[in-house]
Structure formats: structure tokens, C-alpha cells
Amino acid sequence: MNFFAEVFSNIHQTLFDKENREGDIVTTIEPAVQGFLEEKLENVAELYQTDSIGGIIINPQDGSIYALSVKPDFNLNDFSKVKNVSVFSNPLVENVFEFGSVVKPLIMAAALNEGVVAPDTTYNDRGSVIIEKKEIFNFDKKARGVINMQEVLSQSLNVGMVFVYQKLGKENMRNYLLAYGIKDKTGIDLPNETSGLVSNLDSPREIEYANASFGQGLALTPVELVRALASLSNGGNLVVPHLVREIKYSDGTSKELKYESIPTKISQQTGDAITGMLVNVMDKSIKDYWKFLI
């Protein structure tokens, strides 16, 4: 009886596994959001005369991608007219980049989670710091004096991030970064995904970790970074970035796709704290922008 029950319970899956079922894919893309992103990328590309530019807008709670785009792009109806075949690739999943300062919140969150710093923890910023006979500077080489961790993020201070790393320690920093999934493919449903280059985290040298604390020496795909940052605002979970929500088959059946998340080392409390700090960063940026205009 158990044998026949098992056979018949799997018959539907067995039959359809041997067939090519036709149907339509329902994506997570939101047309209005996609249009917004396309417009912003074109404006920025024109303003700064960039060779290439790209963006991803994702729901951090479940990994649904509402928009993604790369410029320059091409017209699918006229792809034979493309002169540079490199535009056929998708750098958001196929290429790695050294992102720099946008990695800083990941390190700050790790230190907050370990309790070695708080948003109001202070240090004396002298404008530079010596690590293994190498001098690391703030972007403008200016000292800030005694300031707190919020200002480290708000002013994007390299010296401050080295202070955070020293409080966190090499082993903790490595474990947290790997827990963000920066060494692994995200599982996004797009072809040719590659994974990050993070071999510097295997180095025993202090300088490698000091540089990594402000995003240097690590090369990630954009989608890897987006997923890691999303975990800071969803309670510490690594979601699977995806563009397919559902498949509607021509026989009238449908299949809703499910994507599992895995936990990082970040707690909900830490996520709330780093999110608050980043909101403050944005508020300050907006205020500074309006002061500049006035």
C-alpha cells in the first residue's frame, strides 16, 4: 500500500517533468518604478558623462526586484545594430566592483551587533591613522576632532571606520562580512551570475582589514551588495533577489514561486539601529543639498 501511495502521489510531478509546459512568466517588475529608474540613470549619465551606470530597486523584505537597469543598453528589436557587444552582458550580476564607502554600513552594523560601539560612541579623529606603517586618510585628509559613530557615517570617514574595525577585530569582521553572503552567488534568476572576490579577508595583515572597513580590497557584484544592505532593514535576513513571481501555464494552472531567506548575524534591534543611522545620513545630505542651492 505504501508503495502505490508513493507512486500515485508523485505522478503529477513525474508526468509534467517530462513535458514542456507552455505559459507566461509574471515578473516582479513595477513599470512605474522601472520608468523612474530609467529616467534617473539617464539624467545622471548625462550629467557626469559616465561610460556606464546601473541601478537596482529591491524590496528588502522578500527580494522582489521592482526595477533594474544598465546604461548603455540596447533595443531588443534592433540588437543587430549594436556595435559594442559588451552591452549584451549584465554587469549587475556578471561583474564585480570595489564599491568603497557604501560598504561602511555593513561594518558599522557588525560592530553595533557585537556591542563594541553604539551610535554615540566617540573617538578622536586626527584625519589619518597609521596601520602597519601605512597611513590611511579621510577623503579630504582633514581631522574632525572628537566625534561619534553617527558622524562617521554621515561624513563617510575612513579613519572612523578603521576605529570601528579595531573595536570589532579581524575574526569578527570576517565572520560578519561572510555572513552577509558577499562571497556567494545570490541565486538571482538571471544568467551568468558570478560571486564576489574577497580573498583579502583570508590575509593575516591588519592593513587588509583596515582597508576593507571602508570598502577597499573587496570586489562584489551589485546584486550581492544590494542583498547584503537589504539585510540591515529586514531583521537580518539574506533574501534571494528575483524577478519571477509566478508562472501561469496555458492549461489554466499556475505556480507561485517561493524564495527562502537565510539569517545573517544581525539582530532586529541592530537592524533598527543602523537603519536609523542611515536615515540620519540621508536627512543630513538633503539639508546640505538645499543649503548649497540657497
Q: Radius of gyration over alpha carbons?
A: 23 Å
**Can you name the CATH architecture?**
3-Layer(aba) Sandwich
Strand order of the largest sheet: 1-9-10
Number of domains: 1
Termini separation (Å)?
81 Å
CATH topology: Beta-lactamase
Count of discrete alpha- or pi-helical segments spanning 4 or more residues? 11
Large-scale geometry: globular
What is the CATH C-level name?
Answer: Alpha Beta
Helix content: 25-40%
Order of helices and strands: HHEHEEHHEEEEHHHHHEEEEH
Class from secondary-structure proportions: alpha+beta
Give the biggest sheet.
Answer: 3 strands, antiparallel
Number of strands: 11
Low-pLDDT runs of 5+ residues are 1-12
The proportion of strand residues reads 15-25%
The CATH homologous superfamily name equals DD-peptidase/beta-lactamase superfamily
Task: Determine the mean pLDDT.
Answer: 91
